Amino acid sequence: MAQGHLIPFLALALQIRQRTGCIVTVVNTPLNIRNLRSLLPPSTSIRLVELPFRSQDHGLPPESENTDLLPPTHVIRLVYASFSLKPSFKRLISDITQQQGHPHVCIIADMLLGWTVEVANDLGILHFAFITGSAYGVAIFFSLWLELPHRRTESDEFSLPDFPEVSRVHRSQLSAALLNADGTDFLSICNQKNARLTLMSDGFLINTVEEMDKIGLEHLRRKTARKNSISHSQMMELAKGLEASGKIFIWVLRSPIGFNVNEEFRSKEWLPDGFEERMRESNQGLLIRRWAPQLEILSHNSTCAFLSHCGWNSVLESLSQGVPIIGWPLAAEQFFNSKLLEEEMEVCVEVARGNSCEVGHEQIASVIELVMGGTEKGENLRRKACAVKEMIEDAVNDDESYKGCSVKAMDEFFYFCRRKIE
């Protein structure tokens, strides 16, 4: 991107190499790699790798690989063109982790390259976004593009819905592109997608000072504090799918990803218009804020299925009650828990995967009907789930005449420890 991004990146790479001894590979397009190579000390062990890129293929002037010579109107086109680097970047990271024998890899990427988060998630490795501006400025920038608050008022001044600590923003502080954005234009789509992906990073590295940038830093910490939530658009589709299914449900509501987990749930913004009122009037759905007694609900005879992120504790609670699962894994090992449950144990149907995938309400309603609608598949899921329930009960049996496998394993653990101590 711009020199203002490349030079701090190089300084960060040198710091990491000097302070940790880690192998550092800087990845960029050919022109930028040539520029970086000229800035590195001759004795450096930092590796530079080029990704193939032809700016002309994306409607840009020749050798337009950073913003130095680009007019402002072309910058977003360059950012969008960077998505074409994803396949070659993924191959490179796979090669580093597998063929070159470096399994512990961490991606540090520019905040404008949100697609690198998807690569990290696909390969199961850490991702951090490097921000060369202030946390405060970037937090407001992301908030403006994601929320477009200036579109909701005629006033020259307005507040940021997800960043209330900030004083009101004035229209004169917005770029012309942002002022004209309506959420459906190319700039909105590109910037919103990038912001959502970047906010899914494991964390941020920011070139700032805690004491002078505290408000912005605290906001970004909140934004990345939790990945076990779905996006705003996915939440909308889930609500529509639940309503379309016609099945009675309990839904524990939490803020979508990218919003403060502690703030009040905003039904009018995050759910379809009139959804909560219709569910209350029809008695189809009970909407609960933040927390509900999960095990108590799962143990009720009327509970037919559990839509879960497939965290293992939730899986065990559901199966211990013989309740099959509709899987929507979001992070970490949850994807593989879902794979085990669906492919090996046959007690689950996966409806979606991750908080960046596109899922429609028709698909959600279809899976709910498959699991809960008296189908042959649904009956088989319940039969298998009940068999697993008996398996779990057997494992924790602690009668004198018979001890289950989990109880035996615990006894063996205690015996081993005592023997080592003695």
From TrEMBL:
Gene Ontology molecular functions: UDP-glycosyltransferase activity
Keywords: Glycosyltransferase, Signal, Transferase
Annotated InterPro entries: UDP_glucos_trans (IPR002213), UDP_glycos_trans_CS (IPR035595)
Gene3D superfamilies, per the entry: Glycogen Phosphorylase B (3.40.50.2000)
EC code(s) of this entry: 2.4.1.-
Domain of life: Eukaryota
Claim: ATP-binding is one of the keywords in the record: no
Main EC class the enzyme belongs to: transferase
Signal peptide residue numbers: 1-22
PANTHER family associated with the record: GLYCOSYLTRANSFERASE, OS04G0273600 PROTEIN
Protein family membership: Belongs to the UDP-glycosyltransferase family.
Protein name as it appears in the record: Glycosyltransferase
Lineage: Eukaryota, Viridiplantae, Streptophyta, Embryophyta, Tracheophyta
